[in-house]
Amino acid sequence: xxxxxxxxxxxxxxxxxxxxxxxxxxxxxxxxxxxxxxxxxxxxxxxxxxxxxxxxxxxxxxxxxxxxxxxxxxxxxxxxxxxxxxxxxxxxxxxxxxxxxxxxxxxxxxxxxxxxxxxxxxxxxxxxxxxxxxxxxxxxxxxxxxxxxxxxxxxxxxxxxxxxxxxxxxxxxxxxxx
Length: 178
Fold this sequence. Notes:
Elements: E1 4-8, H1 15-26, E2 30-39, E3 46-53, E4 58-63, E5 71-72, E6 75-77, H2 79-99, E7 104-108, H3 118-129, E8 135-138, H4 146-152, E9 158-161, H5 170-177
Parallel strand pairs: 1-8, 1-9, 2-7, 7-8
Antiparallel strand pairs: 2-3, 3-4, 4-6, 5-6
Helix pairs in contact: 1-5, 2-3
InterPro entries: AAA+_ATPase, Nuc-triphosphatase_THEP1, P-loop_NTPase
Protein name: NTPase
Keywords: ATP-binding, Hydrolase, Nucleotide-binding
């Protein structure tokens, strides 16, 4: 029986930091991706987001300078750029995790920007509805999409509400679940 862990919390509380820390602790067992802010080198203001895979590939997929019909706030989302990295790593993660029960699929995050991708939504659904797979994922505090609300309500899912008070020890606590 696979373990499913959902991490939520207010924006900026440290969900991605916890995921990166967990990936480091899991080592070879972790496969998937996280998203991180891209900041302007001069002003240090956030100008976009990039996806980073556990294999070390990265690509900016959301930017204030991208022209896109898919907008989140002032960020244009290039769904194709996101899919170029997210879809292959998640497919690989599913295949490996079905062969090796110790693998943990990492998805940071199942949020508005990422959910513009239909194939991504389908892979997330496949992962969460497969009882054999281990997954740790981050979701927004609000149900930004019906998929988020569906996986949030799945039986057996471990919910972690990240706060400034618990974020330091949370990676070790999550590690114990796997």
